[in-house]
Every structure is written in C-alpha cells, then in structure tokens.
Design brief:
Order of helices and strands: HEHEHHEHEHHEHEHHEH
Structural class: alpha/beta
CATH class of the largest domain: Alpha Beta
Strand content: 5-15%
CATH topology of the largest domain: Rossmann fold
CATH architecture of the largest domain: 3-Layer(aba) Sandwich
Distance between the termini: 40 Å
Largest sheet: 5 strands, parallel
Helix content: 55-70%
Radius of gyration: 22 Å
Number of helices: 11
Amino acid sequence: MRKVFVKTQNVKNFITLINNLQNKPDGVSKMALVYGEPGLGKSRTALWLAAQNDAIYIRSTNLMTGRWFLEELTEELDEIPRYWTSDLFKQCVNKLTEKPQMIIIDEIDYLASDQKTIETIRDIHDKTNVPIIFVGMTLAQKKLQRYRHLYDRLSDIVQFKAFSINDVREIITQLCEVEITESAINLIHAQANRFRQIVRLITKIEAVAATNNIKILDENIIKEIFKNESRQSFENNKGAKHVLS
C-alpha cells in the first residue's frame, strides 16, 4: 500500500476551513468545529493538518479536566507547567500572544460536559485571538450549543460526510498498488464506506493479488473477499460466544 495522504472532499473542506480562519482579521472570532461519524478520517486529517500548519494538536480524553488540558497545552508550547492553575492559564496566554499558533482540540466530546474547561478554552481564544478548532463526533455540535457564548464564536462549521464514489475511487487509486475495475470500486463504495474499512480491504486486496498473481481485480473477486470477511467475522463471534458460555 502506498503511503499517501488522500485529500477526500472532507479533507478539502477542512483545509478551506483552516484557510478561512487564518485569513480572518484581528478582532473577528477564529473558532470552528469539525464533526461527523467515526471512521471518516477526522483525527487523521486533524493530525496531518496540524503538522502542515505548525499547529498545536491536543487529543482530549475521558478523564481530562480543565487543569489537565492547560498542562497539556503548556507542554505543547514548550513550557514547564507551573503549579497553580491561574499561572498555567497565564503561561498559555503569554506564550500564545508571543508566538500565535493554531490549536486543534480532538475528541472535544469528552470536554463538552465540563463547562469550566469549555469556558477556559473560550477565554484563551478571546485573550490571544489564535484560531481554535474543535473536532468531535456526530453530537458535538449539539453538545456545544449549550454554551451560547462559545457557540456564537464558531465562525465555521464543517461536517465530515460519508464518502462519495469519487472519494472512494480516489482513496483506492492513490493507496492501492493493484488495479481495480470501476465495477469493483462501486461495490466497495456500497459496502465499505469508512476509511479504516477501505484501508483494511486494500490490504486484503493486495494480499489476494500477490498470492494469486492477479493484475486486475474485478467485482467478482471483491465479492469473494467480502464473503470471506463476513464468514471470518461470523466464526469469530461464534468463538467469542463459546468462550463466554
């Protein structure tokens, strides 16, 4: 499999969002939200774009508190976290004022129920005017709507949507080292519409092609791969039930 970052329509929309935030004048809100169902490449895209834009990437966790968040941010700013929370906040603000950097906060759903942390993030934005992007799951938008002062500052909102046939074709064409027919691509689009699913399928496709010395894979071969995958999944589930019983 080729090591290429594929720019699907979702990725292109994320890039446009970042460009919009970076081009906004001072004094205009530079907060945004990217959300959508799992498996569409949100986190992968966020990490890639963070590297491309010298941005700070923080992945929220289930137990993260406001202080924990500030400590993570301080460390990402190459500072040694201080003891008092108020000092941590000042460290972050001073450093971001001195050297503005975009902040991408992934898995924002974990923090969405913590009002103090959400308001702290808003305060950091208001004091530094650095772009801040939240990345979350399908319900992230509704969860953030509870914080009107913050939600009103979201100048751009992008939803990651299910891959189109063009997206799937682009992913397969750029990643897969084996040629696949158009009818096979249509079948993959119908049955595997998540990035992780497609990548896993490409791995199997390349293995089948190498084992059987096949140059071009058509719809019939893809059907067999899907059947074998379903059969394997069924056997694994049977085994799990047997163990539990």
